[in-house]
């Protein structure tokens, strides 16, 4: 499925077209570039995922790709028939086209086997859905640990969200962490302050997460990737909320695969 974004080009001697003015009304690329110039590439907002009747639906959202912003204004549908297999939803930049009047950026939305993202690829979530089951996401999560399960749950850990200086974990992941920690009787002042930051809206930067992990003496998470950041937080969460070590499962148990 191909998606595109069109920008008007204004030059002396050309006829001013209504379509160009409409595009100027709908997009403000220069404003966004100045406002978020210190942010890395990644999701800025949106792209909520749901599945229904053999189709995966991706909601509207905004993505930053280097110095460019892609705004998907309508929900998009991708056919799904890969039950019982681990897949990820990917938004990929596939190029751009220049004409006399417009610059067109092209993206595609696809479902593919789980792997590491390459240049210009942005994961929007991964899951392993059983036939006849419903994909759990959004308000279906019970707690921080419930974000990563074996089956039928959208795993948001690997979604790279743009933040100042690079990328970070999803605001949803951080809100679930903050809620649990603030309710923990053994939470210390550093946990309470960090938990409030998680619930205060916006994206908690990767740098802030790493500093918190370091202050708590957590060795996991220093690699800087989303998985490492999540594992570091999971270790602290387990001690504060669950009262023990982080829950670990083998990658394969009885033929069942844990999506990491």
Would you identify the regions where 5 or more consecutive residues have pLDDT less than 50?
245-259
Principal-axis shape: globular
Trace the largest sheet across and list its strands: 1-9-8-10
Question: Could you give the distance between the termini?
Answer: 26 Å
Q: Proportion of β residues?
A: 25-35%
Number of discrete domains: 2
SSE order, as H and E? EHHEEEEEEEEEEEHHHHEE
Question: Biggest sheet, open or closed, and with what strands and sense?
Answer: 4 strands, antiparallel
The assigned structural class equals alpha+beta
User: Roughly how many Å is the radius of gyration?
Assistant: 20 Å
Overall mean pLDDT stands at 88
Number of helices: 6
Number of strands: 14
Helix content: 25-40%
Please, could you describe this protein's structure?
- The protein is of the alpha+beta class and 260 residues long.
- The protein has two domains: 2-135, no CATH class; 136-260, no CATH class.
- It is 25% helix and 30% strand.
- It is built from six helices and 14 strands.
- It has helices at residues 18-26, 29-35, 171-182, 189-199, 206-215, 226-242, and strands spanning 2-8, 42-46, 49-52, 55-58, 61-65, 68-72, 76-79, 86-98, 102-113, 121-128, 161-163, 166-168, 252-253, 256-257.
- It has a four-stranded antiparallel beta sheet with strand order 1-9-8-10.
- Strand 11 and strand 12 (166-168) form a beta hairpin.
- Helix 3 (171-182) runs parallel beside helix 6.
- The model is unreliable at 245-259 (pLDDT under 50).
């Amino acid at each position: 499925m191909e998606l595109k974004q069109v920008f008007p080009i204004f030059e002396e001697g050309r006829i001013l077209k209504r379509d160009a003015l409409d595009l100027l009304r709908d997009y403000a690329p220069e404003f966004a570039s100045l406002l978020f110039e210190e942010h890395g590439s990644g999701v800025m907002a949106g792209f909520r995922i749901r599945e229904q009747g053999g189709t995966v639906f991706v909601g509207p959202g905004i993505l930053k790709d280097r110095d460019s912003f892609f705004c998907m204004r309508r929900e998009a549908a991708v056919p799904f028939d890969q039950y019982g297999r681990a897949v990820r939803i990917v938004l990929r930049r596939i190029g751009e086209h220049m004409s006399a009047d417009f610059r067109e950026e092209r993206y595609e939305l696809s479902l593919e086997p789980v792997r590491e993202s390459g240049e210009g690829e942005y994961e929007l979530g991964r899951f392993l859905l059983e036939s006849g089951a419903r994909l759990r996401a959004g308000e279906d999560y019970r707690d921080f640990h419930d974000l990563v399960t074996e089956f039928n749950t959208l795993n948001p850990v690997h979604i790279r969200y743009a933040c100042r200086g690079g990328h970070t974990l999803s605001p949803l992941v951080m809100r679930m962490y903050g809620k649990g920690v603030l309710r923990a009787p053994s939470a210390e002042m550093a946990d309470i302050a960090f938990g409030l930051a998680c619930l205060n809206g916006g994206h908690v930067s990767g740098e802030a997460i790493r500093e918190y992990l370091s202050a708590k003496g957590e060795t996991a998470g220093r690699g800087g990737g989303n998985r490492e950041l999540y594992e570091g937080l999971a270790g602290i969460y387990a001690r504060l909320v669950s009262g023990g070590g982080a829950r670990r499962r083998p990658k394969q148990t009885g033929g069942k695969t844990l999506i990491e």
